[in-house]
User: Fold these one by one.
Assistant:
Number 1:
Amino acid sequence: MKLLVLTSYPDEAACTRFRISQFAPALERAGIEVVSDPFLDSRLFSTFYKSGHRATNALGVARAIASRVATVLRARRFDGVFVQREAALLGPAVTEELLARGLKLPLVYDVDDAVWLAGEGASTNETRYPLLSRLLKAPSKSLRLLGLADTVIAGSRQLAEFASQYCARTEVIPTVVSKEIWRPLPGKLEGAPLPERPVIGWIGTHSTAPQLALVAPALKRLRDEGRDFVVRVIGANESFELDGLEIERRPWSRAREVEDFQTIDVGVAPMFEDAWSEGKCGFKQLQYMAVGVPMVTSVAGGARDFVVDGENACVASEPDDWYRHLAALLDDGALRARLARSGRDLVEARYSREAVEDRFVAVVARVLGR
């Protein structure tokens, strides 16, 4: 059987890479051929969120919209369609409507964020869409997609509970990594002594970097006390600053992704208290756990289901918690070891690609009628 996979972004984007692409080999072994068709190709994705490429991006989007017409015309040769977030970044769910209602193809809809919120991609309570942008982006189309789907795969229990209002069949499959690829460096699980300048690190995107404001006062206090450490920020804009703190900025690199997580000594995962954060799946926390990095984290969304304060992470519920927990992790090797080992054990047992891929395949196969 053949499955058409429609994604907003190419494999460079984590939502594509970890929500569907990493399961393609298992689907193929089950006799389901996967044909991927991202809206943005790799070249357009590399410039899409950067300034100075407006004309190039506009032309690229026009081509991408035209390509969706071709997708619909050739879709009869497929047995089902898998949509990750949305088939097109602009406009209503026309492609999905034509495929599911017009061609009667069974549809699996995958969501790993609360994309139905007006401020999709926002990391604050402020809506990012002026009226024209809102009309073009049509964030409410995700509600229509929930209704079109034969099955919704949600990245967290919270997302699944919302989706179940529109789709009778929902499945929770968290966003995970491979336990064989994402492994701790030697000494991490034993709480080995930290280097002379330990790395307190964060990895994310330009849209989530503002959340680091929650950690900034604690980092500044530790610096004022004379502690020497590196604040490493990976994936934020080149102009990103953190409350006057000296930080080490690095661009995100797919080739360096695992290494970047592995070489952090203490991770931070701050999240605002808002509806958008409650729609997150806790993926950053699981990435830290997979490579044995002890962390201080907020708890929201999917992280509520697996983060246990003092067992596999240090939870910061109040502003002073960031300072207290970071100081403890810098000083206490036994604490680092306990958190790292417990987090890694959890990933190996329940939150890895290897642990969930059979269930993922079963869901897709059921929708295709296998």
Number 2:
Amino acid sequence: MRIDILTVVPELLESSFKHSILKRGQDKGLVEIVVHNIRDFSEDKHRKTDDYAFSGGAGMVMTIQPIESAINFLKSQREYDEVIYTSPDGIQLDQKLANNLSLLNNVILLCGHYKGIDQRIREHLITMEISIGDYVLTGGELAAAVIVDCVVRLIPGVLSDETSALTDSFQDNLLSPPVYTRPADYKGWKVPEILLSGNDRKITEYQEQQAYERTKRLRPDLLND
């Protein structure tokens, strides 16, 4: 999978993809993450990428030319499955959407900034808009990092144990069951005996029941989906 990210502040993303699981996925050749500075595509001598809104009011708007040039340049190199804009009014990111995105080959992520991007970009160049929650960020870079992290870990081979992602919260609309590690008894705080039994069938049944009960108590809305 290849993910191209377009941003006016690439420095915000530099460390996000150089550590832990995302680095491992890149080192294995399972994903390629490339960050592009939109300013490099600006035809303005000062590399300007924003201007005042025709409607007036506070805040600047990202202009068409640099973004269109950047997207067209990338499209001249390869076919893209989606051109995604990180937007507070996009469809909300969830595990189902992350699963679907992880099956794609090439994706462009456009990070908004200022008051957003010229609407014509959204109408003519963007194929999908994604929000990570009902709140507003300074820019789309953090949202892009969240999307990439959420998606890349689902690519087969990225996690050392490929079954790990299948037991994450929100897979099958359930929260994960409680987890424990050694020691089995810490100052009288004990691990449930069933998890020490070695009976795989009983342990699986116990974990499924715990997952259901936690979801019913903490996120009953998930059970209605």
Number 3:
Amino acid sequence: MLPTNDRLLVLAGPCLVESADMFYHVADHLCTITRDLPVDLVLKGSYRKANRTSAGAFQGIGDENALSILAQARERFGKPVITDIHSDAEAAVAAEYVDVLQIPAFLSRQTSLLEAAAATGKTVNIKKAQFMAPEDVLKAAAKVVNAGNPHVWVTERGTSFGYHDLVVDFRGLVTMRSGGYPVIFDATHSVQQPSVGATSGGKREFIPALARAAAAVGIDGLFFETHPDPKNAKSDAATQLPLLESGEVLKRVLDHWRVGR
């Protein structure tokens, strides 16, 4: 699965698969707003959230249940789907249900996990760690390629700026593109404020501006999490884009992307 010069790859959906009804509602809306736009939509949903701030934080509705919802969405909407994996053993299991395996930022240096994802033959999307230099994510991508899988994307999601904030260095997008891999910008996790209190916070109001800026610099894809009622989302409530705002945000991003490509 490769982005094309005339269509923006869009990875979008809720942070977590909370229920079938909610996920299908989000997927239906995303399919509707992108129908006449020059984008290739990939539906996103984590089947389990392993990287939570607190031990008591909600992690999911059950692996098999959530993965089945993702697989059913692929059939129902005719779109590829992507989900995160957190351990070597999860790679082969999740690959039975989805088209793209995503490596979480905190795990992007984990060689065995990258190799396990590569072994499935699925496209592997690597989130650049918050502590990682742009050129270093290319080393992670090379681990997948060296394991026999050339289907790799790399994603910028902000860099640690002190203890509870992230900042985006847009020079990194240029550096990451020099590796020859499709580059995706994660507009929602880039505004996160990690581990503020019992949960992670964020500055949702900066999502549109950062997305437009990344598009103007030049990206192959845009990642964003969106939810019908973000403040009541079971994960990343502070940074998910309200679903009803997603269409207008995407249209404005496309205006800048046409200039930056």
Number 4:
Amino acid sequence: MLNLYITSSKSKDGKTFLTAGIAATMQSLGYSTCVYKPIQTAGIELNGFMQSPDLTYVKSIDPYIDTHFSYLFKSKSEPLIASELENEPIDIELINSEYARISSMFDCTLLDGDCGILSPISAGFQTADLIKKLQIPLLFVVTPREDSINDTLLSIYTAQEKGLDIRGVVINNITEDCPKSLLTAIPRVIEEYTNVKILGLIPHLEGKFTPEDLITSVLNGVDVESIFKVKIEKLDLG
């Protein structure tokens, strides 16, 4: 099974954007793919029904990608606070069983994290503990900003202390005006201080872009084989 938990230390690092891109790419390569979001906060009410904005975005990229969630909260707070505000405790065992069921049905299952790995989910239980319980490898998404290094190093150090399987880091949303010195420094410092590899560089996609544009960006900019630790025949032939 090609499974992956995708997370970031900041809410606007493009985590769901990359999740959708990798999911669409794997689907295009012939792998049945599902995006599972265990916990969605900031849910949107539309026509009397609550919707997951992140999974809706994934569907907008490729409607054939299966999507699932276990908890959907209207509050924009972090999961533990949202669950308390809406009086719906988060059952870790439910997420565990849902993940086992879903991942058994697909070649590739991507978990789109709702927050950073230190965010509490239930009493005495953080996102990092959930990742460890699910025994799923971890991919960090980083946007090149001046404050990216500190936040990313803290997250990676925590993941390493927890004994998580870190596959690597993808630098996302690289704009044309991004200083070259910054774009050089962030990958160098991350690799030097953590021994975690940079596995991708994704440029900013201007305006309206097609799913094919996003897939092309992933294929050209991300080491998909290293992320999943698998040889993909179609990539080798291409």
